[in-house]
Design goal:
The chain is α+β, with helices and mostly antiparallel strands. Helix content is about 50%, strand content about 20%. The protein has 2 domains: about 5-140, no CATH class; about 145-314, 2-Layer Sandwich (Alpha-D-Glucose-1,6-Bisphosphate, Chain A, domain 4). The mean pLDDT is about 85.
């Protein structure tokens, strides 16, 4: 094998390793809970993959288009494989971050080609991007954003029957769960909602798989038509193996606040169920995180309504 070929193959191997090392340094710093370097930030979620892609390609003399585009992916995939095996990242975080990280890593790879042709200083600026962005974001913490998710479903059953199913949800059997993308990405399935007392002030314990518990205090009880409640996640009962710290309900970045069922009687004798919930996002990337939080909440609500419809119509 020619020396030039050896050099080229070494560059192909070394680039993703450099990118991986860069990502690992930031991941270790974040794990130490530094106030200047946080995970759910523009600098980490968007900046670090970009630089990892840049480092994966910048050392190659004449990379082909597919190397420039896809070699940066190797560094990112190695990083998430390490994070998952070491327990740093859960499946939900990986799935949320990867769709934006892979294109950004490719952009970083192509930027490495442009930098080499036009400006060396731009390369230093790329490397410093997360180091500048992340402390800057910590200086200006994001204001909490209130998100609303509403779902509607029609049931071929009278309101009185539907009311009995929503006021308290009996244990959901495995065959009732069905298949949902929300559960496929790692979010636990609902198990039951047990009611203690009746009327305003009563309490429901809504449990999910993996030890996730929500304590729901009833704030509105209109027999047969409306049930509203505030939600408090029992964070002490949620094992770290169920939801990692970045997506923990009631944590720094995300919380579910309240829910409401409204039953509308239809001329056909059936019932239209309106289920509305509010949740909080507190990140500097709410424009992206909201796509996932809204989708996950909508998926959970649709799954619960499907169980209620099946039980009412049976």
């Amino acid at each position: 094998m020619k020396r030039s070929d050896l050099r080229r193959h070494a560059g192909i191997l070394l680039g993703p390793i450099l990118g991986l090392f860069y990502g690992l340094v930031f991941r270790v710093v974040i794990d130490r809970e530094s106030p200047w370097f946080q995970a759910i930030t523009l600098g980490y979620v968007f900046g670090v993959p970009l630089v990892m892609g840049y480092l994966s390609v910048v050392g190659l003399a004449r990379p082909r288009w597919w190397q420039t585009t896809f070699l940066p992916w190797v560094a990112w995939l190695l990083l998430i494989a390490f994070g998952f095996s070491a327990g740093y990242e859960g499946s939900i975080c990986i799935i949320i971050a990867t769709p934006v990280a892979l294109p950004l890593a490719s952009i970083g790879g192509w930027f490495a080609i442009l930098v080499r042709r036009f400006s060396r200083r731009a390369g230093a600026m790329v490397l410093a991007l997360p180091l500048v962005l992340m402390p800057l974001e910590s200086t200006f913490p994001p204001a909490p954003e209130l998100r609303t998710v509403s779902t509607t479903l029609e049931v071929a059953a009278p309101r009185a029957v539907v009311w009995e199913q929503i006021r308290e949800v009996r244990p959901i059997r495995p065959e009732e769960h069905g298949t949902s993308w929300v559960n496929r990405i790692g979010f636990p399935r609902p198990i039951e909602a047990r009611l203690y007392g009746e009327g305003v002030g009563a309490v429901r314990h809504a449990t999910f798989e993996g030890g996730v518990l929500f304590v729901e205090t009833i704030t509105a009880w209109d027999e047969g038509s409306r049930l509203a409640f505030i939600i408090k996640a029992d964070t002490a009962s949620i094992p770290p193996t169920t939801l990692d710290e970045h997506v923990t309900i009631g944590g720094r970045y995300f919380d579910v606040l309240d829910g409401e069922y409204r039953l509308e009687e239809l001329p056909s004798g059936g019932t239209r169920i309106h289920l509305t919930s509010h949740h909080r996002l507190s990140t500097s990337i709410d424009f992206y995180a909201a796509l996932w939080s809204d989708g996950i909440m909508r998926g959970i609500q649709e799954r619960i309504l499907e169980v209620i419809r099946h039980r009412c119509e049976s």
